Amino acid sequence: MEFKGAYTALITPMQNDGELDWEGWRNLIRFQIEEGIDGLVPLGTTGENPTLGEDEEDKLLDIMFDEIDNTKAPGGKHVQVIIGTGSNDTKHAVAYTRRAKMAGADACLVVTPYYNKPNDSGLLRHFEEVAHVGLPVVVYNIAGRTGRNIPTPLMEKIAEIPGVIGVKEASGDVNQMADVIYKIAMPKRKAGKDFWVLSGDDGLTLPLMALGGDGVISVVSNLTPKRVKALVDACEGGRWDEARAMHYELLPLVKAAFIETNPTPIKKAMSLAGLPGGPARLPLGPISTGSEAVLKKAMADLGFKL
Length: 306
Known about the structure:
- The chain has 306 residues and is α/β, with parallel strands linked by helices.
- The protein has helices at residues 22-34, 54-70, 90-103, 120-131, 143-146, 152-159, 174-190, 205-210, 225-236, 240-257, 264-272, 289-301, and strands spanning 5-9, 39-41, 80-84, 107-111, 137-141, 164-169, 196-199, 215-218.
- The chain has an eight-stranded parallel beta barrel, surrounded by five helices.
């Protein structure tokens, strides 16, 4: 199975009282599929997984798979699911990965353990234990959230673990992304093995794919799945002038979506557009009036009627 294209790091819609908006979640999944997104990534940072209860997560997954089964995707394609199963406790990460496998996920997204700041030997063992579950593992490298970057020499070792099939690269360092592609993905492909490199930053989708990367796990595609999918398709097809134009068209929205801590801006944007969104749960609060003005301007420039 190929893990390439445009994936949405799904928000978790909520009501004003902080309870989950179950109907909104159904509508969001349906919207994503009908707009042609390649894959869905629930229960990640954008989905506010640190503040979700396990019973809530179970119900979110049940509803998502139900909608996937009952919503027709363009061309009848299979919409992939990569479930976030990371934790800073290896036992919990393994348990979440088992749950994802039983639920029917195509892969799991496993973030570098946060707060603990594990050393190299511990980090390697962490991913080995998760991979033993038997569900394909996409490593999530985001030092800004975890306090621990995975340097390329260590990523090379992790990539040799059976079952580790790719990385969501959100280091923000284009040089590091290029190293991962050149030193890991390219040699593996020459050897007939797969290692997929997906951008974890919307603003770096174009440069990553120009360097040989495979797509993006996107935040702004919650709001604009068709546009993000078109950008990735243009890159995949080598239509660089077209891709560049779409990149710059989306860039103000990308910047606005991260003007404050994700996912508060994108959830506000979804609500402004009449799509499932709602507030974020504490400790995330509402965005400021100034940030909202920037967000509205970016949305209006893309043709949203506010």
